[in-house]
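notes to self, project folder thing:

trying the whole complex as one job this time. last attempt i did each chain seperately and stitching them together was a nightmare. two parts in total, labels are on each line so i dont mix them up again. if this works i'll redo the older ones the same way
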Amino acid sequence: GAVVSQHPSWVICKSGTSVKIECRSLDFQATTMFWYRQFPKQSLMLMATSNEGSKATYEQGVEKDKFLINHASLTLSTLTVTSAHPEDSSFYICSASSGIGTGELFFGEGSRLTVL
Amino acid sequence: QQQVKQSPQSLIVQKGGISIINCAYENTAFDYFPWYQQFPGKGPALLIAIRPDVSEKKEGRFTISFNKSAKQFSLHIMDSQPGDSATYFCAATLPRGTYKYIFGTGTRLKVLA
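result (full assembly):
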């Protein structure tokens, strides 16, 4: 199956700093990538949808100035958590679609962010 | 209309038993129903998926049963093993081209050795 790689898998940062998380499709071109947030023992909450070369579409309630998403190429999307605060601590997961075929999404391994 | 309701929230099964997880949806426009398995600290991995034109799909020990009229689908894990202990999410998505998944709330499965 297709592989989606996320980096870093975990990160600890100080409050007020910014953190960037990368999501790469390793063996296919991802026309669309999705970013999710998952709290412990809860489901995945869709944060935003990004299409290569265009602005991300954010879900209701998600601050676009806080969570900056860039999808500069067909294999890379980045999520930057700006001015992070402890309440931003969470598990962030990306997924990618090739835009063809079954409708299957391929998920990354997730990135655990801890803001001190 | 966009919700997918999943039950039970947690499930404990003896090794060798059958695990059954149920999901229900409202939006009849959904046309792809995957199940994902997630281990702690990992991203979800696709287990099995079905489209509404079939009533059942089987892959190894995993079977999806789909009831279009009732707008329900379920995951059956036969001969459950301790290695199956994980959280399972059902999902639904709108017609091809959107890939915007609506996830269920998840079921934490524990298979006792």
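what i see at first glance: The two ends of chain A are 37 Å apart (CA to CA).
need to look closer tmrw
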